[in-house]
Amino acid sequence: MSEFDAFMRHAIEQARLGAAEGGIPIGAALVSQDEVLAVGRNRRVQQASPTRHAEIDCLERAGRQPASVYRRTTLFTTLSPCFLCAGAVLLYGIPRVVVGENRTFSTSEDLLRSHGVEVVVLDLDECAELMRDFIAAHPELWREDIGTS
Q1: Of 135, 124, 142, which Cα lies nearest the Cα of 11?
Q2: What positions carry a catalytic annotation?
Q3: What are residue 74's DSSP bridge partners?
Q4: Which of 3, 37, 100, 128 is most exposed, with the fewest beta carbons within 10 Å of its own?
Q5: Angle, to 10 degrees, between the axis of helix 54-62 and the axis of helix 5-20?
């Protein structure tokens, strides 16, 4: 059992909620000093939003925070972040991102690391299965989400 398991469970629960709502099963949790500040899920479908990825939804739900708060946080996400979400991590100075899986999608990990962000990849089968099943059932929606359709 990893020190990250309890916090990643929050992100996975959000991913499952998103799937149940007809959305894309990606979830996130923002944690500071063992306290969950906020959780979020990809709500692009549910809110007809071009930018409401799980990490962005999570940050939105955390509300305005001073930079000093972000600099003490870890962002947990079930899937490796896209460039949009990596940009938010860099903008707010979030020092660590814990990724459930990056087999399905991985574009920004090197970018994050090059800016000093610690990226921890847990490679969880549960997260990979969520995405694999979703992509098989909804390939067009997945391509839309990652900007390739």
Answers
A1: 124
A2: 55
A3: 31, 96
A4: 3
A5: 110
What one-letter code names the amino acid at 136?
A: A
Position 82 scores a pLDDT of: 96
The token duo for 34 is: 């063992």
Write down the pTM of the prediction.
0.96
Between CA 147 and CA 118 the distance in angstroms is 26
Tell me the backbone φ, ψ of residue 75, rounded to 5 degrees: -100, 120
Q: pLDDT tens digit string along 21-51? A: 999 999 999 999 999 999 999 999 999 999 9
Q: Which of 99, 94, 112 is nearest to 54 (CA)?
A: 99
The tens digit of pLDDT for each residue in 62-109 reads: 999 999 999 999 999 999 999 999 999 999 999 999 999 999 999 999
Residue with tokens 């305005």: 64
On whether the CB atoms of residues 76 and 7 are closer than 8 A, the answer is yes
Centre a 10 Å sphere on the Cβ of residue 141 and count the other Cβ atoms it contains.
16
